[in-house]
Amino acid sequence: MEVLREHGEEEEEEKKVFVISNELQDLEEKLSKIQVHIPNVVPEFDWSSIDTSQIPASYKTNSAKEQMLLQLADNFHRQYAHLCPDRQPLFLHPLNECGVEKFVSTTVRPTLQPYPELYNWDGCAQFVSDYLTMEPLLSPITPPSYLPSPTTILKYQRGNCFGFSVLLCSLLIGAGYDAYCVNGYATREICMMDETREVCPLLEKSEEVLKEPMKEKIKKYAVKPPRDLRSKFELQQVAKKEADTEAAQKKKQKEEEERVMEAEKPKPDPLYGLRVHAWVLVLSGKREVPESFFINPFTAHSYSTTDDHFLGIESIWNHKNYWVNMQDCWNGCKDLTFDLGDPVRWEFMLLGTDKPLLLLPEEEEEELADEDLDDFDKEEEEKGFDMPASWVDPIQISRKEFETRCPQGKKVIQYKNAKLEKWAPYLNSNGLVKRLTVYEDPECIRVLEVKEWFENREDMMNMRELNKKTEVTTEYFSPGHIQGLKAHTYKTMEPETERSMEFYGETRVDGLQKRVENAKEMTEYFEGRSDFLHYRHTMFGKRTKRAQKLLVNTELNARPIVQIKEQFHRNPEKPADEDVAERIFMIVEERIMLTYHCKDDYITASKKEFIKRKDVDNKGNKIIMTSDMCVSYQVGSFVKNKKLLHLYEMMLKLTEAEKQLRHQVWESETEVLEILKIREEEAAASKLTVSMYDTERNEKSKQQRETMERLMQEERQRQVEQDLDYLAPFLIQMGSTEKMSKWQALRLKEDCLSDFKHRLIDKANLIQARFETETQELQKKQQWYQQNQLSMTLEDEDAYLAYCSDAMFCIRILEIRLNRHKEMAPQKYIELEEKLCKDPRLAEYLKFNV
């Protein structure tokens, strides 16, 4: 019996080994089926291949009312084709991203955004132009066969002119404008978004209104001007000669401009008048719009309705109705009338009570007033078909998307002799958000000027201009700089060189507005001072050799002062002959000159000149004050000259004022050096400020939050590890385990091994999913590079190559991890089998020798 029992146990163990080998073979077969392939070719973006699994049901189906609307649209199109057989088919119900026909009016989704910048038409147009990437039409002479929803266009940040227009029209209607999408024809430059012949809007100078000079009142008593003794004939000949010279110059300039325009004129377009384009029409009336105008959604530029770039209109629509243009477009859009209530000029599709009214002259309106009242009840009874609600979800733009704006955070626009680059905030470490480069030549090789705009800088700099010809740099600052700096113009940051600094006077105690400095002089302008000082000019001399060797900035090392001039405004509390208008301290010559304000009804001003002398004469006698030390001119002979004691006291005050002025000039020089040092440190650091409410970019709060989350995650992981028991889930399913049979032990072992096998397979699938995600991201980046490689800089190309290198490295690592997982999975399976056999809870039921 014992021999038979041992023989049965051996057979049972052989069966177990056979079952385990089968499980291992099954695991290896399933893992071998998981394959990964590294991409080689980048396919073009295809709207039909986008993921529609998370799209709402309204995108995939049509309601009963929408189906009825499509039938009405087909009937309307048949009548239109019968009446106008020579015209192009109407753009009525293209396919959406799910391949479902949708009427174009229901694609418009009016939505008001919570951002103040998107409340005006120019802000909405600029956002759409910056945020989306332009896709040309597949056929330049026919409308597209598909029209994705505005939400999908926003998600993928790309679209053709029809997608641009629908999105912009939705934002404008949501903001309260009377906006319409237009299907028509435009020039090649408009359709292809070619702005290389357009002047950059940032370079367009605003028209200055010339003010007429004020005519001076003729005084009753005035000195007659001297007689003009010149020959009138000679004056006429000179004026005639100057007029001929000016006319010749104007003619030459006009010929040169015509020659340049002829050279820059584009080549004839073989498809002129046939290129299909979509744009936005904004009618006057709502939002205080005084005159109707067009908006090109590609560039966000506004145009008059008579502009030559727009060659014709087929139809327009909004979220309520659809209108077909019945007017002749032989002269482009110049002769079109946008009175949508006129059925002769605009054929509407749906008859509704909210359609625009026909604009009639006042006389005809009064004549037809009574007839309209009689027919009002009949029109109310004949109510037309209402437009169904939009099938598109509300347009939602997150704060991050609104700030990022441009695709990948950057956009480059090429203008005539200029290039404009835009970046998202915080994308560049120095806060750069916009750069305009102006060139001398049309080939954009020789740089003439560079303008840069900044945001969120800690040093409050918001703009910088660099003139490449003069090498002059001008920096502009917002209020809040540590030194109250407003603008800084310089060639070099070296001290005692030519520069100009402007300040916010209200933030300074001394009221300084501007300081202009070079190696020989310094001029300061003031405003709002209690002593009425508004101008100070200081002239410097050459330094001595000994002073040049001193490196410490002390008053002894300051530049020698030759002269200081100050000018004051009129102080109404003082008499004019006691109110100083100008004082000049000639330090080298040891003289002080005072000029007072003019009295009323006087044409000359009082003056005083003080000559400083040594305290003792040649004989050693002490000199206090003599009459020849002050030369004065007093207006009005009846005024007595002041005594020597008074003049002596005045000279002492002026001498003390001279010492203070020399110290103030040295303080001004020291302040300039301090500002230059601060500017060098700020330029090297380029720190950016982050709002305390910006949780994404506020590093302190972000690090604190991440630290707390990490500690909590570690605590949870530690608790899980303490409570971890690989048999616990299966023991719970079995219930009471105090008395376990052999069959239950075998079942417990099989369940545990089966679960572990599925986990190994799932891990392999997870690695494969991550591999595919990295592959898709690389494909998108390569596609973006193909679309933008012509306008990319060297820095962008280096960044792209670095990204590709990192992505390929990640893909290779995932491939290695997958292969290693395939090799280690069988070993881990065997190790778990051995561990289960040695588990004390199962050992007595599973007698398995490794």
TrEMBL record:
Instruction: Tell where it localizes.
Output: Cytoplasm, Cytoskeleton, Flagellum axoneme
Q: Provide GO CC annotations from the record.
A: motile cilium
Q: What is this protein called?
A: Dynein regulatory complex subunit 7
What keywords appear on the UniProt entry? Cell projection, Cilium, Coiled coil, Cytoplasm, Cytoskeleton, Differentiation, Flagellum, Spermatogenesis
Cite the PANTHER family for this sequence: DYNEIN REGULATORY COMPLEX SUBUNIT 7
In which domain of life is the source organism classified?
A: Eukaryota
The family assignment reads:
Belongs to the DRC7 family.
Is RNA-binding one of the keywords UniProt gives this record?
Answer: no
Question: Which GO BP annotation is one of this protein's?
Answer: cell differentiation
Residue ranges of every copy of the Dynein regulatory complex subunit 7 MORN domain listed in the record: 407-691
Stored InterPro entries: CEPT76/DRC7_peptidase-like_dom (IPR056290), DRC7/lobo (IPR033551), DRC7_C (IPR056292), MORN_DRC7 (IPR056291), Papain-like_cys_pep_sf (IPR038765)
Region Disordered: what ranges?
Answer: 237-264
Residue span, Dynein regulatory complex subunit 7 C-terminal domain: 738-845
This protein's record includes keyword Repressor: no
* CEP76/DRC7 peptidase-like domain sequence ranges: 276-349
A family per Pfam: DRC7_C
